[in-house]
Amino acid sequence: MSQPGPDRQSGHVGCSLTLEVTAPSSIVIQIAAARRPAVTISERLEVVNNMVALPAQELTGAAGGRQHLLHVQPGSVTIEYDATITAGPGTPIRVTDEERVAALRPSRYCPSDRLTGMALSHFGEIPTALERVRAICDYVWRHVMYMSESSGPATDAVDTLLSARGVCRDFAHLVTALCRAVEVPARVAAVYAPGLALMDFHCVVEVEVDGHWQVWDATRLAPRPTLVRVATGRDAADIAFTTVTAGRAELRSLGVRAVAPGDLPADDHDRLIALG
Amino acid sequence: MSQPGPDRQSGHVGCSLTLEVTAPSSIVIQIAAARRPAVTISERLEVVNNMVALPAQELTGAAGGRQHLLHVQPGSVTIEYDATITAGPGTPIRVTDEERVAALRPSRYCPSDRLTGMALSHFGEIPTALERVRAICDYVWRHVMYMSESSGPATDAVDTLLSARGVCRDFAHLVTALCRAVEVPARVAAVYAPGLALMDFHCVVEVEVDGHWQVWDATRLAPRPTLVRVATGRDAADIAFTTVTAGRAELRSLGVRAVAPGDLPADDHDRLIALG
Amino acid sequence: MSQPGPDRQSGHVGCSLTLEVTAPSSIVIQIAAARRPAVTISERLEVVNNMVALPAQELTGAAGGRQHLLHVQPGSVTIEYDATITAGPGTPIRVTDEERVAALRPSRYCPSDRLTGMALSHFGEIPTALERVRAICDYVWRHVMYMSESSGPATDAVDTLLSARGVCRDFAHLVTALCRAVEVPARVAAVYAPGLALMDFHCVVEVEVDGHWQVWDATRLAPRPTLVRVATGRDAADIAFTTVTAGRAELRSLGVRAVAPGDLPADDHDRLIALG
Amino acid sequence: MSQPGPDRQSGHVGCSLTLEVTAPSSIVIQIAAARRPAVTISERLEVVNNMVALPAQELTGAAGGRQHLLHVQPGSVTIEYDATITAGPGTPIRVTDEERVAALRPSRYCPSDRLTGMALSHFGEIPTALERVRAICDYVWRHVMYMSESSGPATDAVDTLLSARGVCRDFAHLVTALCRAVEVPARVAAVYAPGLALMDFHCVVEVEVDGHWQVWDATRLAPRPTLVRVATGRDAADIAFTTVTAGRAELRSLGVRAVAPGDLPADDHDRLIALG
């Protein structure tokens, strides 16, 4: 019986960002792997503003997520993040009452209250939450086409339902909104996704099934077992990798890295998988 | 061989309206049966404003429709319309090039350009226009619930798709928008509908099939062969039975009458039927 | 020098709710006064489901708010809440970094990203945050008409901007969305409002001015100094007084009580006031 | 006393279009100067599909406009239009009852019924139609920024109000929607616009003032007296210079030409001017 070696147990994720800042600005970044009970993170975060290393203030986010707040001066900002992730077996996490209540509310990009009628007429008769989620993910997978640059920052789940095209966040928003509309608590997560065809930050959905959070991805673009959670929230408004909260800054370049421990696992996109 | 008697050949339609007017107003009413080649109309229109008979100026509308323009003083307005309609066999009417172009454009309540993606993903693969129309009418019939007072004057086809409920105009708007989105010219018609369960003005769809206008009704609430056309247009903005174009007036009561010549015909809501 | 007597120091707030439940349901209520550093609360919460007293599970909310989770059986539910509030001087509360980031994000009913252009063109040139907030509250006060039942649960700030009418939550949503769009952190609060003309739950806005939360009310319907905070959140999705998270229940009656300690204070609706 | 010579009396307008067609298609073009009582047009229209000259079927449009219907095969289509326009003095045209009724209805891109409240709260107190129109044009001019490529084909007047940016059609849609909302009949016109900074097709508004159509342009990008009317309609859905009604075709290049007779006239963008 061979033991898996250390190379197979540890995944490597990271990213490189460059921003152009044109006014003194406050920027929140969400790029660090979330702290989770079964996950060990060895990481490095470096922020340089006009050749000077800058401290990043860590704020607490949902589900172990961490936001880093930067106060930067006009000029260039480069951000480097690298982490080695050693994860134990992905054990499902219990949904708290507070989380359940929040995950049923409509949100900016998942206005579940606007499409309740459509959701009920298509999925309302399906008896169990699990079957409803499967039917919703299947519907979105069949009817929405993945197309780069087919949506913008203001695109919401209704827009995606109507245009029938989008990127990962649009798939996640539509699945989330439809789930909430049929009383299945749902939230989104930004993740590193080893195996993603065009490497980038990825966005998936977590829904409550039998009291635990389970992850779904209607894009089917990366296997779910090796996803690495970064940020968790109601929708893209909560989990953007950069948010300028004051001042003015623009993203100039972005590179994302994600390598799984060992071979990429298979994923039939149908069974229950928990996001670490 | 018995000949059908006169009672069986002539339908009777009409309506009674009362408006309360609180400022000198201009009101357009569309309640008279449209003039059509194969239709003979014997009618009476009476407008009384504060006990005084008022002339109604007839304006020309699309597809033989007639608008009546009233200039009224504050107080009460009562309108009585009655017509005996003798219709020949319902022969399909050719679609003109001008009509086809107009019937493909998005309109206020049928914003076909907003739901093109959804329409193509659901109905775009169906080869013929006729089959696409049938699939669309069937989809709307199955997924939208008829419910009185479930929509308002600003409700459009997207709202109806999302809420999955509506009244006859909402069914007509959604069918029309979906048809246009898959390149089937479509327009709406206000009609008298003998046999309608709760008698009222009714609203149906005309689409082009093989060069001719054919009528569809996804509510399935009245047989199509005995419908009597009143007004024809892009959507409800064009065919409202009353529009206040200046001043201020409110509808106080409405009664609609529609009796078919002879027994009500059967309608499987699937075959081709032309609106006279 | 006379000391204010106990009658003048303590306010009294409370409410009575009746719900009709038609399926086993989970209901979240937010009706209890928030726990705040300078506030002493003496309270009583009674829930009765079909004549049987029911325990209410307390969940933690933002800014000292408390949600109560009820699991109820079909039949009737009556809820009685009464509290005596003794508040110290209303000292402004510091805005944390986490709160600031969240209060700048667009939300379901305050889609600030959709009206950024309009907000900047009307208020973007105003130099300080305080002056921008005053101009926004003044604009909403002048252009939006308070009208009962003029909006519904799906109405958002854009709808209110367009319809120019609404109730307290609509005023709060529009002010909040406009503030966020010009980079002023803003959130909403449900409050008991002594002096409110038609007594009901009330909804106001908190914005960051010079690092502290300050309260604004563009309806001008109740003085701000005697408001009692209940729930705090991004918009009405977070602070509804009842949310059915599973099952089916409908509100049958609601009575709200709010009496200030002593005479109602004056409020020019322009100066800085902190919500306790 | 010198008479103006022929060079000063005749304007020259025209355009060159190239389309790439990938399926047998029907295309409607609206590029020819409208036939008007006081206007003499000497013109040439050439359509070439894969090196073969193609006939263009002329359809009748509103206000003397002409649509040309083309049935084309896959490959390239080039369209050349040139016209010499000799216009008499621009005498205002009477508004017919049918036109007035149609120009008060909401339309796809001018959903006046959605912003009635906002329009009334900003402009409803202004006594005369002319003053309301001036106030609306001034509001749009001050609050909306002209920005190329800031809108798309689905952008409507509400989107423009919110984003506060747009191109000529967006300015025209917002003015039109606001006018209709305060009971001023309004429609849009596509025009050739001598003097337009970046030469292109231009879009302006016609509103009824004292029974006649008068032209307004809240972009202020070209003088109104030398505009040449092409197409007239409810909004951009009616006046697009190309519409593919069946098949698939994409615009590859567009060049527009417009030269005024003589020097460009001054325009204060405030007085009454009729569009020929």
Give an overview of the whole structure:
Chains A, B, C, D: Pfam families: Transglut_core. Chains A, B, C, D: This is Transglutaminase family protein. Chains A, B, C, D: Residues 160-220 form the Transglutaminase-like domain. The structure is a homotetramer of 276-residue chains. Chain A has two domains: 9-88 and 241-259, Immunoglobulin-like (Sandwich), CATH 2.60.40.2250; 94-234, C8orf32 fold (Roll). Chain A is globular and about 60 Å long. Chain A contains seven helices and 14 strands. With 276 residues, the first copy, chain A, is α+β, with helices and mostly antiparallel strands. In chain A, strands 1, 2, 3, 4, 5, 6 and 14 form a seven-stranded antiparallel sheet that branches. A five-stranded antiparallel sheet of chain A has the order 7-12-11-10-13. A two-stranded parallel sheet of chain A has the order 8-9. In chain A, helix 4 runs antiparallel to helix 6 and helix 5 (157-163) crosses helix 6. Chain A starts with 5 loop residues before the first helix and ends in a 17-residue tail after the last strand. Chains in contact: A-B, A-C, B-D, C-D. At the A-C interface, strand 4, helix 2 and strand 14 of A face strand 4, helix 2 and strand 13 of C.
CATH topology of the largest domain in chain A: C8orf32 fold
Q: pLDDT under 50 segments of chain A (min length 5)?
A: 1-8
Count every helix of chain A, treating DSSP H or I runs of 4 or more residues as helices.
Answer: 7
Structural class of chain A: alpha+beta
Radius of gyration of chain A: 19 Å
InterPro entries (chains A, B, C, D): Papain-like_cys_pep_sf, Transglutaminase-like
Pfam family, one (chains A, B, C, D): Transglut_core
Domain Transglutaminase-like (chains A, B, C, D): 160-220
Protein name (chains A, B, C, D): Transglutaminase family protein
